[in-house]
Every structure is written in structure tokens, then in C-alpha cells.
Write a structure and sequence with these properties.
- The chain has about 350 residues and is an alpha/beta fold.
- It has two domains: about 160 residues, 3-Layer(aba) Sandwich (Rossmann fold); about 160 residues, Dihydrodipicolinate Reductase, domain 2.
- About 35% of the residues lie in helices and about 25% in strands.
- The protein is built from twelve helices and 16 strands.
- The strands form two sheets. Strands 4-3-2-1-5-6-8-7 form an eight-stranded parallel sheet, sandwiched between helices. Strands 9, 10, 11, 12, 13, 14, 15 and 16 form an eight-stranded mixed sheet that branches.
- β13, α10 and β14 form a beta-alpha-beta unit.
- α11 crosses α12.
- The model has no long low-confidence stretch (mean pLDDT about 95).
- Bound molecules: nicotinamide-adenine-dinucleotide.
- The site of nicotinamide-adenine-dinucleotide has 25 residues, from α1.
């Protein structure tokens, strides 16, 4: 069993911790929190040992009636792999702690690529992380793009990808973020950072990205145009995606018109927190004109990176190859909707 610690128990960390507990080959050592808020209480209720991320704030947990198992240092010492789920930039500050303990570490997409030995997407480049000391699971958007560009490149070759990312202003719990009444080019300069980030996983893909931000919280939406090396048929692209793990091709008969209904669908399917770990690609949007393939996909920013974190643990440990790991992850989490419409 691989003992996994989660440092940072927020949007991503709580989902990663739950996914770890679902794995047949992993044990959750515990989770580190900076303060005793509702999420710390949730961790305790779930029976996850709680560690103080900031040692001199440990008293606050006792004051809130929450028992601590130790400090972040203790958590790292007791873990075979640590998954850092702290806010952007904090992971880089924590890197020395993990190195001091010689504990392999996984970082998130908010960190710069140089925080880790390799930037990681299970479908894109699993093998490159095998045996590495550290990996950075790329952002939700980069994960979503890597999952579709990899099979398109393997099957047809990708001459050029052009993607406009219409991004949610903030997660539902991020009450301070916006815009609340505007549509922003963000960044206004082109390309946005997303294309170069895809290249940290798939260096051979020629991709330009444009970013926007809108007053929404539920999901991102991508408008994708990929010029393929060889001509394709739209129905073959649909088949290709339907046979890929972690891609949900939304059948027209489902009558799902946007992120609201996608989240409703996930809730109805009893997904934890209404999570959609898969890219959600509208079948009706998959269009091919000559060598130009077009589609719309929605990406659930809070959850699509979660299975990738689990695979990254196995890759660093060298415990399984990509196919074995993804199969175990997907079966244990309950990936896929089996919906053909
Ligand atoms: P979050 O703010 O929801 O959670 C971060 C947690 O870490 C919070 O509970 C915070 O209190 C805690 N924390 C702060 N400093 C800490 C420290 N020094 N030690 C331990 N814990 C600390 O953030 P998030 O959305 O989960 O993002 C985490 C990482 O995942 C970031 O790199 C982010 O870019 C990336 N990411 C976020 C999303 C998303 O949409 N939320 C999607 C993909 C990747």
C-alpha cells in the first residue's frame, strides 16, 4: 500500500483525499490544514487524520475542538508520496520540506512548471513521470486539452490547434472573484498561457490559445478548432472520443445545453459533490470540414484533475503502467456514465 498525504485541503485537496481513500492500493495518511474551518471539520467527520499546516496555529484547532495528529512535517515524514494541493505559489514554497524528507511530491497546475521534474497528464505523458521525484499535474484546462489532443494526434496527426477558453470567473465557493457583470479578454494578449502549458505535456503540438473570463462559476467551456494532418470524418471522431476514457460525449438526445444541466446530470448520477471528472464534449458540435475539426467541450475545473493526481502517485512510485493505473483509478472512482443516448 502506498501511504499518501495531502497538504492543503481545499477545492482540489478534499477531492484528492476522497479519491485516495477509494484506491485499493493506497492509504490516506491524513490531510494538512492551515485553519480549523468547515473543511477541517469535514475531514475530521470523515475520519481523516488532521495535521496543522502552520505549526504556531495548532492551538486554534484545539480551541475549535478538533484533534490534531501532528504537524505538516509529521505528515510528510509519514507519507510515501505527498500531494500538495495548496494555493498557487505555496507549493513551490513547500518543495524544500518534501525534499528534506526525500518524499516524492505531486504539485498542482497553479505552480510554475519548474516546480517539478515533469508536468503530467495521464493520457498525454504518464511514462515520463515513472520513477521521477516530483510531478506537476497540469491545470484543469490543460488537462482537458491534453485529453483530446493526444488521441487526435495519435490517430490523425495535429497540424495546428486553436482554442478559445471561456473560463468561469471563480469556483462556487470563491465569493470574492469576478467579473460579476462583464466579459473579459483574459489575458488580452495572445496567446494565453494555456497553449504553452499544453506544450509542457505535449511538446510536439502546435497550439494557440485565447483566454476569456465570464460571470460563471460552474465550468469552463472550450471552443476548439484542430487542423488535422489527414482528413477525417466527424462520425469517426465521435467514435474515437467515445472509446477514450475520461471523455464524456454528450448525446444530442440528453438535451444538455450547458454547464447547469451537466452539473444537474452529475448530481442525478450521484456523483460526489456533483463532480464531472470527464471532459464533456457536445457530440452535436463535433464537425469536420476537410482537415478542420471543431467542437465545444465543458471542463469541470474543480474535479477533472483528481484522477490525474491519483495516476501521478502510481507513476512516481513506478507501481503501474499508464493503462493499469488509469483502469484502477477509473474503476475505483466510478468514472464514465455509460450514457449512449
Ligand atoms: P483552495 O484555496 O480551494 O485550497 C487550498 C487550500 O490550501 C486551502 O484550504 C488553504 O487554506 C490551504 N493552504 C494555504 N496555505 C497552505 C499551506 N502553507 N499549507 C497547507 N495548506 C495551505 O485552492 P484550490 O482551488 O484547491 O487550488 C489548489 C491548487 O490546485 C492550485 O495550484 C490551483 O491552481 C490548482 N487547481 C485549482 C483548480 C480549481 O479550479 N479550483 C483546478 C485545477 C487546479
Amino acid at each position: 500500500m502506498t501511504r499518501v498525504g495531502v497538504n492543503g485541503y481545499g477545492t482540489i485537496g478534499k477531492r484528492v483525499a476522497d479519491a485516495v481513500t477509494a484506491q485499493p492500493d493506497m492509504d490516506l495518511v491524513g490531510v494538512a490544514k492551515t485553519r480549523p474551518n468547515f473543511e477541517a471539520e469535514t475531514a475530521t467527520r470523515k475520519g481523516y487524520p488532521l495535521y496543522a499546516a502552520v505549526t504556531d496555529r495548532a492551538d486554534r484547532f484545539a480551541d475549535a475542538g478538533l484533534e490534531l495528529a501532528g504537524t505538516a512535517d509529521d505528515l510528510v515524514a509519514a507519507s510515501d508520496v505527498i500531494v500538495d494541493c495548496t494555493p498557487s505559489g505555496v507549493g513551490a514554497e513547500n518543495a524544500a520540506l518534501y525534499a528534506d524528507h526525500d518524499t516524492p511530491a505531486i504539485f498542482q497546475g497553479g505552480e510554475n512548471a519548474d516546480v517539478a521534474d515533469v508536468s503530467f497528464n495521464a493520457r498525454g505523458n504518464y511514462a515520463e513521470a515513472v520513477g521521477a521525484d516530483s510531478a506537476r499535474v497540469v491545470s484543469c484546462n490543460t488537462t482537458g486539452l491534453s485529453r483530446i489532443l493526444t488521441p487526435l494526434d495519435e490517430t490523425y496527426g495535429v497540424e495546428k490547434a486553436r482554442v478559445t477558453l471561456v473560463r468561469r470567473g471563480g469556483d462556487p465557493g470563491q465569493t470574492g472573484r469576478g467579473p460579476i457583470d462583464d466579459i473579459l479578454p483574459d489575458p488580452v494578449t495572445i496567446p494565453s498561457h494555456h497553449g504553452p502549458d499544453v506544450n509542457t505535456v505535449l511538446p510536439g503540438i502546435d497550439i494557440d490559445t485565447l483566454g476569456m473570463k465570464v460571470p460563471a462559476t460552474l465550468m469552463h467551456t472550450h471552443s476548439v478548432n484542430v487542423t488535422l494532418d489527414s482528413a477525417a470524418d466527424a462520425s469517426d471522431v465521435v467514435d474515437l472520443f467515445e472509446n477514450e476514457r475520461r471523455l464524456f460525449v454528450i448525446p444530442p438526445s440528453a438535451d444538455i445545453d450547458g454547464a447547469g444541466k451537466l452539473k444537474e446530470f452529475a448530481d442525478d448520477a450521484d456523483r460526489p459533490r456533483g463532480d464531472l471528472w470527464e471532459n464533456c464534449i457536445w457530440e452535436a458540435s463535433i464537425t469536420v470540414e476537410g482537415r478542420d475539426c471543431y467542437l465545444f467541450q465543458a471542463i469541470h475545473q474543480e474535479s477533472d484533475v483528481v484522477p490525474e493526481n491519483i495516476d501521478a502517485v502510481r507513476a512516481l512510485r513506478g507501481d503501474a503502467d499508464a493503462e493499469e493505473s488509469m483502469t484502477t483509478t477509473d474503476e475505483s472512482m466510478g468514472m464514465g456514465f455509460g450514457y449512449r443516448g
